[in-house]
Amino acid sequence: MRAEGVSRETQRRLDAFQALVQKWSPRINLVSRGDLDHLRDRHIADSIQVADAGPRSVDHWVDLGSGGGFPGIVVSIMRPDVSRMTLVESDARKTAFLRTCVRDLELRDVSIVNKRIENLQPMVADVISARAVAHLTALLQLASPHLIPDGVALFPKGANWKDEIEAARRDWDFDFDAIPSTTSPTASILSVRNIRHAPK
Questions:
Q1: Fold of 8-197
Q2: 118 carries a ligand binding annotation
Q3: How far is CA 46 from the centre of its chain?
């Protein structure tokens, strides 16, 4: 299946990335076995939406818990305009997979960091993304030390995103937009700004 409105080179990289996931996943569980047949219309399509939701000018984009490269590798393919891309993953096997993707897909200005998110020095990011990593409350805790003051965090969320917003408001103040997902009628990408601890 061809992604809409992309160049041949971008499509080639998306196809090559899909093949890498299919090759590596049985060994290191990048996605569930059932999802291997739905990579393009589920994981890759979701990740393209995250890439599209980012601002047009980005100096440093950080993807937390990159795992199988969703959305980090897909963002790197779709957004060559991003000056620097950093993918953070604590699992050494998945880190090896991500490094293979960067090498084989010839992605430029992409760094892989094999650390737990909690152990990172401040990343000074314009954009932070994370998909299927944690509940929104935990994501705000993880992301807030690394965003510049006018930065944005992009978190794809499923049908319960409104409940996650309500729960996160107990500990955090933030502004957000909910961008409707094109892959699920109940899902949204949360675009979160101005993250700060709620007054007690």
A1: Rossmann fold (3.40.50)
A2: yes
A3: 9
**pTM over 0.85, yes/no:** yes
Is 65 a known ligand-binding residue?
yes
Of 35-39, 55-59, 105-109, minimum mean pLDDT range: 35-39
131 is in an annotated binding site: yes
- Provide the β-strand partners of residue 132: none
Closest CA to 46 of 23, 67, 24: 67
| 14 membership: H or E segment, kind and range | helix 8-28
- Please check if 68 is assigned to a binding site: no
96-154 confidence digits (pLDDT tens): 999 999 999 999 999 999 999 999 999 999 999 999 788 999 999 999 999 999 999 99
In the chain, domain spans: 8-197
Which pair of tokens denotes residue 50?
Answer: 């995250």
4 has binding-site annotation: no
